[in-house]
Design a protein that fits this description.
By secondary structure, this protein is α/β, with parallel strands linked by helices. The protein has helices at about 45-50, 75-80, 95-105, 110-125, 140-150, 170-180, 195-200, 220, 225-230; strands at about 5-15, 20-30, 35, 60-65, 65, 80-85, 160, 185-190, 205-210, 210-215. The strands form two sheets. Strands 6-7-8-3-9-10 form a six-stranded mixed sheet. It has a four-stranded antiparallel sheet with strand order 2-1-4-5, covered by helices on one side.
Length: about 230
């Protein structure tokens, strides 16, 4: 089976000279839910930003056989939905409806299609009836749900999420895990929440200093407390 995401010898250096990713190679297959873990500064978020072309380093990144590069960005972003750690980076309109409708409008959908996609996306994240609410007046958990809806409205095949449970209270965290468990998309989830990794994913990718140092079943990772401590994951 061909991977839905294929990364080959990817490296990336920020303008200040910091080498954030070193020679990373990775295959992701359709339907997988993968936890991407590592201490702060390990390169997780930088790697995620390469998956829909926000960053482009040296090496090859392919999504559904399409190389992630400037001339293919629109096609790639139709496949890959990226949810930022801070929903305030994703929500910018005066109403929830307008935020969720932005992607379908950008895709050229008709008004009727837009309204249907907004309705369905809000229903999936259990935010039906919030259309006219101001996103900046929502709770943290509600904002994260609406941020996911803005991506789901474009019907991506892949969801890439950066710290989806960060800042949530215990109830919000449980609800977020339950929501993500029900979604059918292939997922890559960068997180420090190891219990979420155990509960939601089958495969864990461990990064350290911009490199992948382990690719193992999630439960196996959680059964190694000394390993977790050694790599700043406890």
């Amino acid at each position: 089976m061909e991977p839905i995401i294929a990364i080959r010898q990817l490296s990336f250096c920020y303008p200040d000279g910091r080498q954030a990713i070193h020679d990373v190679s990775l295959n992701v297959f359709q339907g997988e839910k993968i936890g991407l873990v590592g201490a702060n500064g390990a390169g997780k978020s930088t790697l995620l930003l390469h998956l829909n072309g926000i960053l482009q380093g040296n090496g090859v990144v392919q999504v559904n056989g399409i190389r992630v590069q400037k001339e293919n960005i629109h096609r790639v972003r139709a496949w890959v939905g990226l949810v930022f750690q801070n929903p305030d980076d994703q929500l910018f309109s005066p109403t929830v409806f307008e935020d969720v409708a932005y992607g379908p409008l950008y895709q050229g959908c008709s008004r009727g299609e837009v309204e249907e996609k907004v309705r369905r996306s809000l229903a999936v994240v259990q935010m039906t009836g919030s259309d006219e609410r101001n996103p900046f007046h929502l709770s943290g958990g509600e904002k994260k749900r609406v941020a996911i809806a803005t991506v789901l409205s474009m019907q991506p095949k892949i969801l890439v999420l950066d710290e989806p449970t960060a800042g949530l209270d215990p109830r919000g965290r449980r609800e977020m895990i339950a929501l993500l468990r029900e979604l059918p998309q292939t997922m890559i989830i960068a997180t420090h929440d190891l219990m979420m990794v155990e509960q939601l994913t089958d495969r864990a990718i461990v990064m350290e200093d911009g490199r992948i140092i382990a690719d193992i079943p999630s439960r196996q990772l959680l059964s190694k407390p000394d390993y977790l401590l050694d790599h700043g994951l406890a």
